[in-house]
């Protein structure tokens, strides 16, 4: 991914984070469901920035066809764009951030700084009965067949980058800028 594209993605995510943390949004009702303040703000931001919002059923149809792939806090399916690039499309459940979308946006910005080749881009939002969830895409990185990264190798690489391991049992790391 080009540096300029990564910077544009980072700016977009920071824009969302700033919007989520800005002035209050009174609770509103969308399609008969009550949404929390950040959900309301995310939907407003999406409308102002021409970002798509879909119902969960639309996402689930593609997810089920793709084999119900899960990874951490994400449900994932793959799609190919017009240039033949493969993208992992993810609906993030926000479970690692207790549904705090602003904290999640902060994590995306940091992740794009440390791992630019796998930058996650917010391409929309999914309205679920559990609230509004970010819809992301990420370049699908193909590695050599049958080559796996083992935890010791990953931990060593993170340590060399300046990350600090806080909780080995749950593999929780502190980024260098927060050490």
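^ Assign residues to that structure.
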């Amino acid at each position: 991914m080009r540096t300029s594209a990564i910077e544009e993605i980072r700016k977009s995510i920071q824009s969302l984070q700033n919007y989520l943390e800005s002035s209050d949004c009174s609770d509103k009702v969308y399609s008969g469901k009550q949404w929390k303040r950040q959900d309301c703000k995310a939907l407003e931001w999406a409308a102002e920035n021409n970002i798509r919002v879909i119902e969960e059923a639309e996402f689930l149809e593609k997810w089920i066809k793709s084999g119900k792939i899960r990874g951490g806090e994400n449900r994932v399916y793959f799609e190919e764009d017009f240039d033949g690039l493969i993208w992992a499309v993810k609906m993030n459940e926000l479970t690692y951030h207790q549904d705090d979308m602003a904290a999640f946006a902060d994590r995306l910005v940091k992740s794009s700084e440390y791992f630019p080749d796998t930058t996650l881009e917010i391409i929309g939002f999914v309205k679920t009965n559990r609230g509004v969830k970010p819809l992301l895409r990420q370049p699908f990185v193909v590695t050599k067949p049958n080559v796996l990264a083992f935890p010791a190798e990953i931990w060593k690489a993170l340590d060399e980058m300046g990350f600090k391991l806080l909780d080995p049992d749950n593999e929780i790391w502190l980024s260098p800028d927060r050490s």
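DSSP finds five helices and ten strands in the chain.
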